[in-house]
Design goal:
The complex is a heterodimer of chains A (about 700) and B (about 190). By secondary structure, chain A is of the alpha/beta class. In chain A, the strands form 13 sheets. Chain A has a 5-stranded parallel sheet with strand order 10-7-6-18-31. A 5-stranded parallel sheet of chain A has the order 20-27-21-22-23. In chain A, a hairpin with a 2-residue loop joins strand 11 and strand 12. In chain A, helix 14 packs parallel to helix 15. The two termini of chain A are about 20 Å apart. Chain B is mostly helical and about 190 residues long. Chain B contains 12 helices and 1 strand, in the order E-H-H-H-H-H-H-H-H-H-H-H-H. The N terminus of chain B is likely disordered. Classes of the chains: A alpha/beta (about 700), B mainly alpha (about 190). Chains A and B meet through helix 15 and strand 26 of A and strand 1, helix 2 and helix 4 of B.
Chain lengths: ~700, ~190
């Protein structure tokens, strides 16, 4: 009993505080009028309802609409009795219930009641406001009521669903929630959406097939696109692939034609070898700083003749070739890359190591080599950003289990892709990395580091089943007397033509699929021994293979976490960018104006990546189709008479929405940036900050309803 | 638990993908298509008595386990009811496959695990050869003589069938016995 005693004085002091606030800020309507001097506060909308402005002082006509949600609410809460009780409240002019308020007839009930009873504030008691707040606000708006005078009382997620076994208490709680919400509505201001001018350009981060597709779609739609690629050329991982499933089309040709289209498109500004250094701003108005890294080659002079590459004496292991080929210190990412201009890698170039070598400079007919070139910082402004950062394969340093990284003849799927590519290190021939012989016994292992929540990644990487089937098929084509073995857990072939592709592969080629995980891979007598089990016969299996290809897990590409932090976008625990809603908003990130495409969001194949990139592009085109962006006005505002200009709110704001006004010495709110999180309100020592339609007075009133 | 035997599938005779080819050719069934849905085994009336289930027979053929497959009792248990083949999503007729496997076992001289089943098949064929169709009474007598199995447990249903007139004592021969004879001659000739 000591706790309530101690709480009591505190509660009282909050009460006082509430009084002080109301003394200083007479009424919500009045506040709106006073706010006329502030640039971001919207002018009050002329109301068709009588008694406008001074809602706090006169009797209002409120409406309460209680939804059954089928049996979701009505199965637990006695909606009829709640409607009846609430209807007895003095200023509630209308109280009713209906099976589905969100349905068209349900909305019609609300519209009619507003019209007939002249309601000037309503509470819909239903599901979470994230579901249907917009639905009902639109409905009331159609009757001339300010949409911000409509509030949702959540009696489903926060009441009926969690109290299914306590029907009486749930009914009582629902009634209290509705009463509290009524308390809030009584003090609600009439607000108007905030209009923000938007910049109709788009930044696309990542020049793989996702970024290329999104850029082309947007550019074709007439929008200017800035495409950023970290590597020295476009293409991403698709440039490394040999052929694609299920059609066995050459991947490179198709990609190249799209990349060329990007490079030549008048609406696309391509920045390769570049990174996003800084992002400020908000949806419609992002300010970027792009760092264009020094290539040491003047791209205006360079003709791409390639003489410098031939003359360069320095070779190092190529990451593009997955360690199976070499590259020069001055080189293009791959042959006939887009753009096809070489770049000097300063960590390896002899000139930058000791200044001794000038060969490329000497042979260049255009005098395009510029050792003194420096990184360039470019400022740009855009209205929306697409994050298409792609994937990486699970790092081999952390995957000792299958002898990966130790046994030369154990390679990963991308390395095998390079091997199968006509422009790859072996010119498309399948050979053992250790001795160059053609492997006769080939083992493919699926689900390496995927679907292993204990040690690696819990998710399915989605593309491995299909590309392994493709690998085995191409291997059998090239080595007809070779025997491919495929260790798998399940076969997932869930897209158009995939299952058919797989079955056809199995039928034609007589591959041996072994259902079971591999327990050990070790080197023995020049061969790679693979120990596993075939669970279909229950037999242990040991294959003395010539070569092993691991279908390793897809993980987000390096640096995505840093980029996400810059963009204020969120990532999941594996580093994949999170979408706003997995089903309903799959291409929007949780931050407005930031969109997703490709494997940066989750593992997916090329078809899905292209679909998602196009979806993203069309979403952005819809966003940018107007000159102005309307934003929710439920944001923070400052009472200028109270603000002492301490600046605590500026520091605490996670959205950089608060700033000091140097002339007036007070803090101001950038309405377009503010997300209404309330951090500044909680931190303000003077209670000078308040949230529109969520003021301390309103919240305390709601609390009062529950405790009285 | 029974200790698992380590199988090494590293050389041609161990994997024995030739066995898969051989069986596929002989039976005309594309056994690579099997994705182990187990519908065949689920519907098979004799599977509960089989030492190796029909789906496993296919799997073992894929794995090249010739000795185990041809030596199994399962191939002799199949009664060719065709439930499996009718239901198989990949059109594999296991009845046909089992026939082919039985033939292969006989050619290889692998004794049937269920020796009497073999004799039953022979008695059946003899009966057909004689009259162009199977005659149950003479066929069973033939089988009993060959196997010295008096089928005591099955006598009662036999008597019931006899009383209902389902077991005619004398065999009835078909018209085209000469053609049957020629069929048998041709089969024997082709085989040798």
């Amino acid at each position: 009993m000591r706790w309530p005693m101690r709480m009591l004085p505190q509660a009282k002091s909050r009460d006082c505080l509430q009084n002080i606030n109301f003394k200083n800020l007479p009424s919500p309507g009045g506040r709106g009028e006073r706010g006329g001097g502030k640039p971001e506060s919207p002018p009050p909308e002329p109301s068709p309802i009588k008694g406008e402005g001074n809602y706090g002082l006169i009797m209002r006509k409120l409406g309460v609409f209680i939804c059954h949600c089928g049996v979701n609410i009505a199965g637990t809460v006695d909606v009829k009795s709640v409607a009846e009780k609430v209807g007895k409240i003095e200023d509630v002019a209308h109280s009713t219930d209906y099976i589905y308020m969100c349905s068209e007839p349900g909305q019609q009930i609300i519209r009619e009641a507003i019209r007939e009873k002249g309601l000037d504030g309503i509470v819909v008691a239903c599901c979470s406001p994230s579901m249907h707040e917009n639905t009902f606000r639109k409905a009331v708006k159609s009757q001339g009521m300010n949409p911000y005078l409509c509030e949702i009382a959540n009696i489903r997620e926060q009441c009926s669903w969690v109290h299914q076994k306590e029907k009486e208490e749930a009914t009582q709680k629902a009634e209290e929630i509705i009463k509290a919400t009524l308390g809030k509505v009584r003090k609600n201001e009439m607000l108007e959406a905030i209009a923000v001018a938007i910049n109709r350009r788009v930044l696309v981060v990542g020049g793989g097939i996702a970024g290329i597709t999104a850029s082309l779609d947007l550019a074709e739609g007439g929008y200017e696109v800035i495409l950023l690629e970290r590597e020295t050329a476009l293409g991403g991982h698709m440039a490394q692939l040999s052929r694609t499933f299920p059609d066995l089309d050459p991947a490179f040709g198709g990609l190249l034609s799209k990349a060329l289209e990007v490079a030549q498109h008048p609406n696309i500004h391509l920045y390769c070898f570049s990174e996003l250094e800084d992002v400020k701003g908000y949806v419609g108005n992002f300010e970027l700083v792009i760092r264009n890294k020094a290539t040491s080659v003047d791209k205006r002079k360079c003709t791409g003749c390639g003489q410098c590459i031939l003359s360069c004496p320095v070779e190092f292991v190529s990451e593009f070739e997955r360690g199976m080929g070499m590259r020069k210190a001055i080189d293009t990412l791959y042959a006939s890359s887009v753009p096809n201009k070489p770049v000097i890698h300063r960590d390896h170039c002899q000139y930058f190591i000791d200044g001794t070598c000038h060969r490329c400079e000497e042979v260049c007919p255009e005098k395009a080599i510029d050792f003194r070139q420096e990184d360039e910082r470019i400022s740009e402004k855009v209205g929306a950003i697409v994050v298409a950062t792609g994937y990486e394969l699970y790092p081999k340093e952390q995957l000792g289990e299958y002898g990966y990284g130790e046994i030369p003849d154990v390679i990963d799927g991308l390395a095998f892709e390079r091997m199968l590519s006509p422009n790859g290190p072996t010119k498309g021939k399948i050979t053992r990395p250790s001795d160059g012989k053609v492997p006769k016994e080939m083992v493919f292992i699926q689900c390496v580091a995927s679907r292993d929540p204990d040690r690696y990644m819990p998710y399915c990487s989605r593309i491995c089943c299909m590309y392994t089937a493709k690998h085995a098929k191409i291997y059998k084509e090239q080595v007809p007397d070779g025997q491919p073995y495929i260790f798998y857990m399940d076969i997932r072939s869930d897209c158009k033509g995939y299952e058919e592709f797989l079955q056809k592969t199995v039928e034609e080629k007589g591959l041996l699929y072994l259902r079971g995980r591999v327990s050990r891979v070790f080197q023995d007598d020049g061969r790679v021994r693979v120990l596993g089990v075939d669970t279909l016969t229950g037999k242990m299996v040991e294959v003395a293979a010539d070569m092993v290809v691991l279908a390793t897990a897809i993980v987000p590409s390096n640096g995505v976490k840093d980029l996400a932090a810059k963009l204020r976008a969120t990532v999941d625990r594996h580093g994949f960018l999170t979408e706003a809603h997995i089903k309903l908003y799959p291409v929007e990130s949780s931050t407005k104006g930031i969109y997703l495409a490709g494997c940066g969001q989750s593992p997916k194949d090329i078809s899905d990546t292209v679909s998602q990139a196009s979806a993203t592009a069309s979403k952005i085109q819809a966003l940018l189709s107007t000159d102005q962006l309307l934003q929710d006005p439920l944001i923070a505002f400052v009472d200028e008479g109270i603000c002492s200009g301490c600046g605590i709110c500026v520091e605490i704001c996670p959205y950089e929405a608060r700033e000091m006004d140097p002339h007036r010495g007070i803090s101001i709110v950038h309405s377009a940036l503010c997300q209404g999180c309330g951090a500044c309100i909680a931190s303000c020592p003077n209670n000078a900050c308040e949230l529109r339609n969520g003021s301390a007075g309103q919240v305390l009133r709601m609390v009062d309803t529950f405790i009285s | 638990m029974e200790e698992m035997k380590v199988e090494t599938v590293n050389s041609a005779e161990k994997v024995n993908s030739s066995f898969l080819e051989e069986v596929s050719k002989k039976s005309g069934e594309n056994l690579s298509l099997c994705y182990q849905c187990l519908k065949c085994t689920a519907g098979c009336p004799t599977a509960p008595n089989m030492d190796i289930r029909p789906n496993n027979i296919i799997r073992m053929i894929q794995m090249g386990m010739k000795k185990e497959v041809l030596g199994s009792g399962a191939i002799w248990f199949c009664v060719y009811c065709q439930t499996c083949g009718t239901r198989c999503p990949n059109e594999i007729h296991i009845g046909v496959l089992m026939d082919a496997l039985r033939e292969m076992a006989m050619e290889e001289g692998i004794p049937a695990k269920e020796k009497n089943i073999h004799l039953f098949h022979e008695a059946f064929i003899q009966s057909v050869r004689r009259g162009g169709r199977a005659h149950e009474v003479t066929m069973l007598m033939d089988y009993m003589l060959r196997s010295r199995d008096l089928m005591k447990g099955s006598l009662l249903p036999g008597v019931k069938l006899f009383l209902k007139g389902k077991f005619p004592l004398l065999p009835s021969f078909i018209k085209g016995r000469d053609e049957i004879k020629r069929i048998f001659e041709r089969c024997t000739k082709e085989k040798s």
